[in-house]
Predict the 3D structure of the following.
Amino acid sequence: MSRVSALEMAFSLMLESPRFVPSEAAGFNAQLHRKKIFSDLMAAFNFEVIVETGTFIGNTTGYLTTTTQARIFTCEANRTFLSLAKSRLSGLANIHFTQGDSRQFLRTLFASELLPAKLSKPVFFYLDAHWHDDLPLGDEIQIIAENLKDFVIMVDDFQVPNEPGYGWDDYGGKNVLNLTTFQSCFRQWKLLPFFPSLPAPQETGGRRGCVALAPEGRMSDKLRECKSLRIAQE
């Protein structure tokens, strides 16, 4: 997105929604089943730290901080969008904003706030920093998996197998958010992929696809128990 386009979008969004207001339409693309997935994961793991890449204007950030007691660390590459998110979310507690590349953001967190000695519970990662040709998802997953044993990742805009009604991001070539592109990455880091159990026509809001990832073993066993999710064919 060009700087001019970003400024135009930011100005329009500020006029339409100058402050974050909790509602069914706020966060996770206004998708109620997506929120159910997160609620199930929160009940299973009681996350104390949530990390988001791709703040955009802060709707999901606001949802996360108003529905949990977790500390939220969020990163946005576009300075204009980050400024807008900060303005819309001012007054809300436990949000730590960073402007910059999501990969460096994660590396910095693992050298500071995400040191094992500071963590008593698994960490939830919401990865939504994929608007550009330089798709950071594979690197983000590698950084997380190299540094933590207990975590859950949710990737927005990911293709849901056999459910074409859920949208996904396709930037051409190998820059497609689907299993064809990322299955080898998941296998390399021994992550099991889970998808929404709800058929796409029954979802609300943007009806964007997602995948939830957890390390094989104890973590993935808990995801198997979440009725809002289904395991990909193994």
Notes: The radius of gyration is 17 Å.
